[in-house]
Amino acid sequence: MEGQPQGPPDPAAMENGTEHRGEEFPPEAQETTVTEGAAKIVFPSANEVFYNPVQEFNRDLTCAVITEFARIQLGAKGIQIKVPGEKDLQKVVVDLSEQEEDKAEVKEGAPGDQPGTAAVGDICEEGLRVLEGLAASGLRSIRFAREVPGLRSVVANDASARAVDLMRRNVQLNDVAHLVQPSQADARMLMYQHQKASERFDVIDLDPYGSPAPFLDAAVQAVSEGGLLCVTCTDMAVLAGNSGETCYSKYGAMALKSRACHEMALRIVLHSLDLRANCYQRFVVPLLSISADFYVRVFVRVFTGQAKVKASASKQALVFQCVGCGAFHLQRLGKASGAAGGRVKFSAACGPPVAPECEHCGQRHQLGGPMWAEPLHDLDFVGQVLEAVSANPGRFHTAERIRGVLSVITEELPDVPLYYTLDQLSSTIHCSTPSLLQLRSALLHAGFRVSLSHACKNAVKTDAPSSALWDIMRCWEKQCPVKRERLSETSPAFRILSVEPRLQANFTIRDDANPSSRQRGLKRFQANPEANWGPRPRARPGGKAAGEEAMEERRRLLQNKRKEPPEDPAQRAARLKTFPCKRFKEGTCQRGDQCCYSHSSQTPKATAEATPTDCPEAPSQNPLGPGAASGLGID
Fold it and tell me: What is the pLDDT of residue 289?
């Protein structure tokens, strides 16, 4: 057997000639052991940034996806994988050409040429090379090594020396040092160093704090041909439309505030990935795109092909959304049409698809995107993952939720971007809300297709035009009339209801209106199991996280901060003078009377209601050097 693959060199070791051990943990710190899946990790209890139980679903799903990806990749090489809990070695379904099938039939009779088997925890020389760019404690990489078969090596990288030290301890604790190589490096530089085809990774997993935008350019170059790229985005406030200009700066698209914001977030991330891959004659093929909890997660394969890259423009679309009734229309950026000789001709698309004012309510349109307008998932691959998880329910702690989410995904209309919601339709015209089955039945009776969306529990994803949808809602309003005298003549509700429906809706419940996942009672949309179920705070210098009480107080102070009127400068100056100057206490403040904080020893202690988070005082030069405190205000 060949030697174990070596991890990337430590940048500090290359510079200094010695291994950089990083900052040691305080000996008095109490350690906490966490068990998740087949992995066990140890971390200081004060350092909560190293583990977030909310992300267990994310990690379980990633293990399931990489397992099936390994099954496909190794199956093409004649290697079968053995997953703990599976009754028998499942056959690998691979598309083979006729010649490959003939060769396989010839090899069946030779006992020495039987396909090999890749087991969990063993090094597979033909297996996958995995990179976790931002590994923290190394939990995800350790789970890969202990739960996913068919791996050649796993590089667990982090820029923090403190995290790498913790990672080394956990790797030794779980006996996976032969598979997992801890690495301390900038994730971008590490991926840029693996651009050569022979050095690329088969799987790259990126799960940063916030936006992965700084890492995407390097990631699309460092993943192998047909390799798997797994990306998590937790900056949902940006992707959901709260800051469209920030979304454009990070992802190259304008996000809109809409009921379909979570699916639009997925499509914006896919657009950004494809756009960056196109720069290097590469393109992405989505396998699975998930919106869950407070983040979105996409699994895409990356391929190279100049001809296929030309079709990328026709896969993107702008979104015209009415600010009154919420009706939306898509405008493709490019147009692909057939030409003589079976060739495909690409040209600019024609538009726009809407008038300056909405045809239903007369309001203006907002323009969002570009976004990915093709299917979000490979339904064959999703079905393969769903079948494997259902056949082995004891493998993952969140298997029940994985089954529910993937079942809803298999029921989604793949060729229909975005969706409406029940409450959006009814609140627009101020009427009572029809049941999910009634609205779905009306659409099915009218000859349209309709489905749910895993991103929203009351979503209505349909290929019906907005005019047909509003006709159905007009018919529903006739059963529960709205008092017209209470409606403004310029309101969307008045203008929509003033038009007689051309389509007569039938709200009789149909059997096929109730989706299978709903009938079986699967866990499709999980409620938060505990309070503050969400992302952890960003790590502070040294790796320690803020306490739970401090985070609660900060959340309270930041509530409605944009809705509050701006504070009067004089009142603000007087308020800040109630806080003692931290630098004055340390003897390092050089601003004197110009300091916005108080230098008096009689200054009363400030309350939490007036925490000074907005002082414009610029940091002055610290004569004590970088080791002295440099923060402003109070702790």
Answer: 97
Burial class (CB in 10 A: 0-12, 13-18, 19+), 358: buried
pLDDT, residue 547, reads 58
How would DSSP label each residue in 430-479? T-PPPPHHHHHHHHHHTT--EEEETTEEEEEEESS-HHHHHHHHHHHHHH
Residues 60 and 175 in one domain: yes
Average confidence (pLDDT) over 367-391: 96
Judged against a pLDDT cut of 80, whether residue 274 lies above it is answered with: yes
Q: Are 28 and 38 in contact (CB under 8 A)?
A: no
pLDDT at 537: 62
Q: What is the pLDDT of residues 565-575, one digit of tens each?
A: 777 788 888 88
Q: Which residues are within 8 A (CB) of 187 and not within 5 positions of it... i.e. 6 or more apart?
A: 133, 134, 157, 159, 206, 215, 218
Domain that holds residue 592: 568-605
> pTM of the full predicted structure?
0.80
Peptide bond into 352 cis (omega under 30): yes
Inter-residue contact 631 to 615 (CB < 8 Å)? no
Same domain for 484 and 588, yes or no, is no
471 shares its domain with 578: no
Cβ burial 396-426 (10 Å sphere, 16+ → b, else e): bebbebbbbbbbbbbbbbeebbbbbbbebbb
445 inside domain = yes
